[in-house]
Amino acid sequence: MMSPDIFHNPHGPDRSSARGLYFVAISQFGISFSFNCIMSFMPFFILKVSTYDMKTTMLWTGLIMGGSSLIAAFAAPFWGSLTTRFRPKLLFQTGIFCNGIIFFIMGFIDHLPLLLTLRFIQGMLGGVSTIGLVLIAVSAPRDKIPRYMSVFQISLTAGQLVGPPIGAYAVALFGYHAPFGIALLVILFSLIFCHIYVRDIPPQPKSAKKSKPFTRGILWGWGLTIMGTVHLMFLPSILPRILENFQLAEQAAITTAGTIMMAYTASAILGNYLLVILACRFGLTRLIVIACLSASVMQILLYFCTGIYSFTVIRMLQTGMIASVIPLVISTFACEAGGGTTIGFLNSGRFVGNAIGPIMATTILAHFGLLPLFLTIAGITLAMLWAFLAAGSK
User: What pLDDT does residue 336 have?
Assistant: First the structure.
């Protein structure tokens, strides 16, 4: 584990450093936007180009949407460790550019195994958000780490908010190829913002002290980060099936999927902002408990919704609670350790959740149905919460 001191300016944060933190978030917004601009309609795109039966296609959908994130989960700590040898800003820019190229190529693929291969390559290039978190940890005052972690999370979530409707309506107006071009364009603008405004910092040297093993609290915090991401990301891969139950045609289902994703992502931004503010008064751990319990209850309530509007409202409330868990957990340990390895490990939980969410959703739905899926997500979340609290009390 790296020494906390090396991640902070010894002379204290200056004004330009603070501005740079926001532009790190803006650059990360571009990556998030491009990803979600495409992922909002990807299940429909896969259905269109697939030559397999429905059940097999659903399994391919889970792998294509989640496989990249599973590989990125292993890459995230590695990217964090690279900051000891390379300039974090250069790594951040490289990751942004490579992701943009992969996004663009994907738009011209109509072969599912090849599409999955590109997603795996994208996963190897993933973990860019770890570098963004390290850049924030370098410049942020220690007492404001939760605030800037929240800003970073909000930027990710804002990309999830804006991306889906633009992707969905671009498909409706111009066809399936258009959003991939839009994604590349946004990535290029993000790269320019990063190059101009983000403060360059030198490689972060390793601590001379012997690294300490991760505590059980960090391990279960990682588990909570995974489940928080699962709550946020499981739904898009099965929205075609859910909207089919509401008897919507393909074109209406695509635009409705984008609208639903936009609505619950907006509530995730608001909930994340409000709960992180409340953490200063009630404490990080208490807010984590409230968010996990509330989101788990609402996860089960989704099964009993009888229409699109009630489903959307419950989903908005659920994401509004669970979105804050990720920055709250990372802030809990970033304040104590701040090392790139620890941050990279915790951040890898996002990618594991991104991978598990679609795969879990499509697999359980294909074999067992919606209720077992919702009960599984809620149950694992509560189990992770209990283990996290138990580890923290020792």
Answer: 52
